[in-house]
Structure to design on (149 residues):
């Protein structure tokens, strides 16, 4: 397993993975150019990606975290989070993530040490051109979770 920074051809080379975590391409484009992207390579292939942005006030935000379904449930998402957290310590006070209130994603982030911080009401209906459903749940509000570094 190797984690590397990706500076070129982010969209061209990694869009299918990015769309696993954020299914609307124009939403991915909003943060892809201003964020820092990392790729986790395994078995000669890119198995996961993570995009983070500086949100000011010493807060780093995970905007996209995706692992190829063939590599899921192996701790790779957690490995990307721990890699980002280790790089951020000393420069940032907190790592946060915004996600839908889904029974798949919220427990994952809580298991990685994140706690609920705040929510943005009606984020998904106001920002996506179609309903977003995850694990049978229609997503409405963006839930922000935060982990102190």
């Amino acid at each position: 397993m190797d984690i590397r920074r990706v500076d070129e051809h982010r969209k061209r080379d990694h869009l299918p993975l990015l769309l696993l975590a954020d299914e609307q391409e124009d939403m991915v484009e909003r943060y892809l150019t201003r964020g820092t992207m990392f790729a986790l390579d395994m078995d000669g292939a890119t198995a996961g990606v993570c995009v983070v942005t500086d949100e000011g006030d010493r807060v780093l935000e995970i905007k996209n975290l995706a692992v190829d379904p063939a590599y899921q449930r192996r701790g790779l998402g957690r490995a990307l989070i721990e890699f980002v957290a280790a790089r951020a310590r000393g420069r940032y006070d907190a790592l946060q993530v915004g996600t839908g209130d889904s029974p798949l994603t919220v427990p994952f982030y809580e298991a990685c040490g994140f706690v609920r911080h705040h929510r943005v009401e009606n984020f998904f209906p106001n920002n996506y051109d179609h309903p977003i459903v995850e694990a049978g749940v229609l997503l409405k509000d963006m839930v922000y979770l935060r982990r102190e570094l």
Notes: The mean pLDDT is 96. Residues 48 and 92 are 23 Å apart (CA to CA). The two ends are 24 Å apart (CA to CA).
